[in-house]
Amino acid sequence: MQPLSDISSPLIAAFPAELARDAEAVLAVLPDSRLPPRASFPVVVEGRQVLIPGRLYNDEPLPEAVALLSSRQRQLLHCLYSRHFNGMVRQRHLEKIVDSTDPWVVPFVVHLAGEYVLEILVVIRDELRDLVAPGARGHLAYGRFIVDNPAFFARTQRRVVSYWSCYYRHAYADFWGYPGSTVLDLLRSAASDRAGHPWPRLTPAAARLDGYC
């Protein structure tokens, strides 16, 4: 298991302080890793800064160890493993949390929307269509997160377009048919309602898409 002095602090910092005990319980079941979490990035969750790991390199814990965790602790574990270096592991754990409206889950989902794995984008798109519908609890949670983290979401928008242009134009000649485009529309709608004005659309115009990568 991971020695707390080596790796606990950066992973505990991924969640609000009131979840520290739950995060410690999760760390206790994580297998050892030869590499520390990479390139944590700051976001604001309900007015407090947290540091989300860019990548996690631990193997997945044994099912019997996970079974000993509480439902909240398992949620935190799934959040952390949604940052795993293996895309299939990220998707598997995303599917366990993407229907949550808990505010500490939201940044993990939004960051995945700005990554390159198409299957992950489809999972997010299909779940958020209902979760982030106007009036839904998720609409409020995602709207607040984006309004509180405008630079983070601006970078996410640009990443979605860049990955589409680099890897998926052969499958989606029209950006507006790309799953990532739908995700951005849903998130901008939530942010617009929270902010009380249209949220900036940073998707390039069609005429500017050539060579965008």
Using brief descriptors, characterize the structure shown.
globular, 53% helix, two-stranded antiparallel ribbon, single chain, mainly alpha, 10 helices, 2 strands, 213 residues
Task: Explain the overall architecture.
By secondary structure, the chain is mostly helical. It folds into 2 domains: 1-97, no CATH class; 100-213. It has helices at residues 4-12, 20-27, 63-66, 71-81, 87-97, 106-113, 118-131, 137-148, 150-168, 179-195; strands spanning 41-45, 48-52. Strands 1-2 form a two-stranded antiparallel ribbon. Helix 4 runs antiparallel to helix 5 and helix 7 (118-131) runs parallel beside helix 10. The protein is globular and about 50 Å long.
Which secondary structure elements does this structure contain, and how are they paired or packed?
Layout: H1 4-12, H2 20-27, E1 41-45, E2 48-52, H3 63-66, H4 71-81, H5 87-97, H6 106-113, H7 118-131, H8 137-148, H9 150-168, H10 179-195
Antiparallel strand pairs: 1-2
Helix pairs in contact: 1-2, 2-4, 4-5, 7-10, 8-10
